[in-house]
Amino acid sequence: MVKEKLEEIRQKAMASIEEAKDQESLNDVRVKVFGKKGEFTKVQKGMKDVAPEDRPKVGAMINEARAAIEERMNEAREKMQQRALDERLKRETIDVTLPAKKNKIGHRHPNTITLEEVEKIFIGMGFDVVEGPEIEKDYYNFTALNIPKGHPTRDEQDTFYINDNILLRTQTSPVQVRQMEAKKPPIRMIAPGRVFRSDEVDATHSPSFHQIEGMVIDKGITFADLKGTLEMFVHKLFGDDVKVKFRPHHFPFTEPSAEMDVSCFKCGGKGCRFCKGEGWIEILGCGMVHPKVLEMSGIDPNVYSGFAFGVGLERIALLKYEIDDMRLLYENDIRFLQQF
Predict the structure, then answer these.
(1) Residues near 155 by beta carbon (within 8 Å), at least 6 away in sequence
(2) In the 3-class helix/strand/coil scheme, how is 5-65 assigned residue by residue?
(3) What CA–CA distance (Å, rounded) separates 92 from 104?
(4) Most CB contacts within 10 A, which of 106, 192, 303, 308?
(5) What's the CATH number of domain 110-337, 3.40.630.30, 1.10.8.640, 3.30.930.10, 3.40.50.2300?
């Protein structure tokens, strides 16, 4: 009876091992056969009912059946492990003939490229590059630039005020005032930086943008020096064929003042969509530093004179790269930025 029972258990176990699909199901077979409540365990517990003289023979049959089942179970486990390894290696196979993955590195923004070019031009003409605070005092942003309280220019700039005396600067001209207070002439400087105005966002306006203000203070500085400097700047930036035109204008901190236009470098001044058919493109404002501004900064206007100018960095970038919408500069679309 024991021999027949062991043979039945052995056949069922072998069949279950063959049907096992993975190591989890194989483990279920082991528990079913050799577990505390397993069929093989029941046979072993029944050894106490076997006659003493038959126990060696029955014990040998039990060990033989157990060894056969365990051997088959180990073979099945090794095959499963090898199959799993082969599948994993197949998934992880590397084709060394494929091109390597390219590292995506950063790309300089059009504003950065343009600013570096502008700085290089002015440094070559002996200018210093100076920075100042973006959170500025009302005095430096307006009063020291000949724009007292109540002046209409303050309304035009729609300033972001933090309190009555502190604001987000609307221009980088305050850096010029700080330089005049801190240094004695001669002064040659440009002040690039971020400025803020409460403007609606559209193709040509943004509440946050960048300006480059420039200034020269020395003895005997005239409007001719201003014209020569800015013409050199334009020719270096846009090419020697570009023409320059100055139009009278008004700025509180310069007198006389002017707007500077350049001939359209797309149509050569003939008129096109880019210049709106006029042949000229306005690029910056400029003028001779107002004597009152010099005096408020501690510089004697009877001894020294100077000129100043201001240009929008984004405006230069838009013109240089023929971009028709300022918003493209801030949308961070990598497809757009990689063109520069």
Answers:
(1) none
(2) HHHHHHHHHHHHHHHCCCHHHHHHHHHHHHCCCCHHHHHHHHHHHCCHHHHHHHHHHHHHH
(3) 24
(4) 308
(5) 3.30.930.10
Strand partners, 285: 259, 310
pTM of the model: 0.66
Average pLDDT for consecutive 10-residue bins of the chain (340 residues)? 73 81 81 76 70 74 80 86 82 75 79 93 95 93 88 74 90 93 93 90 84 95 95 91 91 93 79 79 93 94 95 88 85 83
Q: Residue 8, CB half-sphere, CA atoms under 13 Å: how many?
A: 7
- Which structure tokens are listed for 63? 């060990």
Burial (CB count <10 Å: 0-12, 13-18, 19+), residue 169: buried
Instruction: Extract the runs of DSSP E, i.e. beta strands, from 124-172.
Output: 128-129, 135-137, 166-168
Distance CA 54, CA 12 (A): 25
Report d(CA 293, CA 75) in Å as an integer. 96
Q: List residues forming the annotated binding site for Mg(2+).
A: 255
Residues with Cβ within 8 Å of 205's Cβ and at least 6 positions away in sequence, in order, are 199, 326
